[in-house]
Amino acid sequence: MPIYKTITVSPTTSVYIWKVEEPEQDLAVGIELTPHCQNRMDGMKSEDHRRAFLSIRHLLAEAGYVDHDLFYDDFGKPHLKDGNHISITHSHNFTGIIVSETDEVGIDIEMQRGKILRIAHKFTPIEEYKTLANTEALIRKLTIVWGAKESLYKIYAQQGLSFLRHIDVMDFTFEDTRTLAEILYKGKKSQYEVEFLEFEGFTCVYALKMMGG
């Protein structure tokens, strides 16, 4: 069963991406779920969701973990029992995790779709990107910005945080493959490094909280 991509972000931080192509029974082999996660999976009506759920357990195994090492807080944020940081994402037939021994991390995978043009004003000052050459470039750029904000939101995990008002992503070019972002919320500022990649019409963005930021 193929892992699609592994990225070594730093000596202490790695990203693992799975392309879900296997049938559910193949993905279930060798996976032992906690009662909580078995209940969650039993409640999933969509086979695609169950396959994605199981593929994430294979990604955990790539990182040296099993389902029992994972737990969720009241906000729904995943944690590892050994104190390392983790974030999880799922979009259509791709799933991904980022694991770090040293940094708070967030990850998001999004399909590049035209509908993002209609909602862009809700999460970013869209006039910033009006200079882009064509619609396709604008969709790609907005998807990166959305993914960056989603990744930061997963790290921050506080109710009331607004993508539009509280999270700012510095401008970037596609060639950069990285940028910086900050959250200013309730008088407190925190800063983040953001990296992104594109594949098969999808965008993966991951973020690391900067020390002291």
From TrEMBL:
What are the transmembrane regions? Answer: none
List, alphabetically, the Pfam families matched.
ACPS (PF01648)
This one is known as 4'-phosphopantetheinyl transferase family protein
User: What species was this sequence derived from?
Assistant: Flagellimonas iocasae
Keyword Transferase on entry: yes
MF terms (GO), sorted A to Z: transferase activity
Lineage, opening ranks: Bacteria, Pseudomonadati, Bacteroidota, Flavobacteriia, Flavobacteriales
Instruction: Tell me the ranges covered by the 4'-phosphopantetheinyl transferase domain, including all copies.
Output: 105-193
Keyword entries, A-Z: Transferase
What InterPro entries is this protein classified in? Answer: 4-PPantetheinyl_Trfase_dom (IPR008278), 4-PPantetheinyl_Trfase_dom_sf (IPR037143)
